[in-house]
Amino acid sequence: MTATQERPPTPPQAPAPKGTGTKPSRFRYVATTLDGQSVKGEIEASSVNAARNELAVRGIRVNKISEKKGLNTDITKSKVPLVEIMHFCRQMSTFVRSGVPVTEAIETIRRDTKNKRFNEVLADINERVAAGYSMAEGVNRHAEVFPAYFVAMLGSAELTGKIDEAFQQLYAYIRRDIELRRAVRKAMIYPAILLSVALGVTALITIFVIPKFADFFKSFDAELPLPTRMLMAIADFVQSPAGLVTGVVLVAGVAGLVVYFGGPGRRTFHGLLLKAPAVGTVMTYAATERFCRVLAVLLEAGVALPEALPNAIDCSNNLVFKERLTEATESVLAGNGFAEPLAQTGLFPITVVQMVRVGERTGDLTEQLDNVATFFESELDYAVEKMTTWFEPMVILFIGVVVGFVALAMVSAMYGIYNQVDMG
Fold it and tell me: Which of 308, 268, 288 is nearest to 348 (CA)?
C-alpha cells in the first residue's frame, strides 16, 4: 500500500479545542508527511499532546514540537487586506483551470505573497489540503481572514468539481466589493476635508485672532457693538478655566460616545444611521446590494438557499439588517417563501421584494437577485453623489457664517471706534 493510499479519508473539520476553559497555546513543529516531505509550521492546541494528536489526524508525523513563547494571540490575525484575497482567488482560478494541482497552486501563490499573515494562512491551508482535508475545511480554519461566504462557495464547488469557477466568481464579487468601498471612501474625502478645515478655521479664529483684536479694542476704551462684544465673550470663555473644563468634558463625551457606539451601543448606532437623512439611504442601498450580490453568487455556485442565507447575512455590516434578516430566515425555513419574509423586515425598498417575488414565480431567483444587486449598485453611486452634494454646501455655509460673523464684528468695531475717536 502506498503512502497516499494509507492516508485517511477526508475527516470532518477539526477546530482548535474549545470549551475546555483553557486558552489554547501555540506550538512550533517540524514534521514529516505520509509522502515523506518535511514540513514545519505552527498549530494552536490546549497541550503538546493535543497538538500531536491534531497533527496525527492530518497525517503528519511530528519530529520536533515546542511551545511558542510570548503572546498567544496574533494581533495581526484580521489584518489581511481584502485585495490580497481577491488576487488569491484570481490566481487560484487560473492555476486550477490550467490543470495545476491545488497544493502546488497554493504553494506558488504563498511564495509570492508579501503579507506575512496571509503567507502563514496559506501555509496552514496547504498543509491541511496535503493531509487529506478539503479546501473548504482548510479555509474554514481561518474564518477571521476570509469573508463569511467563502467556505460555502468552495464547499459546494468541491462537490461539483467546479472549484475554478468558484474562485472566478469569488474574484469577481470581491473586486466589485473593493471598487464600491473605494468609491464611497473617495466620495467622502472631500466633505471630510471641508469639515476639518471649517473646524480648524473656527478654532484658530477663536483662540488666536480674536484675543489680539480684543486687546486692541480695549486700548481705546470705547463702547463696542453687540457682535464684537459677543465675539470677545466667546473668546474669553474659551481661554478661561471654565472653557477648558467644558472642552475636556466635550472631548470626553465624544470619546465616550465613540466607545459606546463601537461596543454595547453598536446596534443603536446602526439603527440611527438607517434613519438619518441622506446617510440612511446610502446605508440601506449598500446593505441591499451586498446581501443580494452575495446571495446570488452563492446560489449560482449551487449552494442551497437555507445554507446560503446565513452566509449572505453574515456579510452585512449593519447589525439591524443582520437581526431582522435572521428572523426572516426562520420564516423562510418554516416554508413561508422568500419574498414575504423579506417584505416583513421593513428594510428593503419595494423594488427588491417585487423582483424576488418574480424570481420565485419564474424559478430564476438567482438572476433576479443579481439584477437587484446591479440596480442598487448604480443607485448607491447616485445616492453617495447626492449625499456629497448635500453635505458640501452645508459645510461651506457653516464656514461662511463663522467667517462672516467674525468679519462683521471686526468691521463694526473699527467703524465704532473711528466714529467715537473722531467725535471726541
Answer: 288
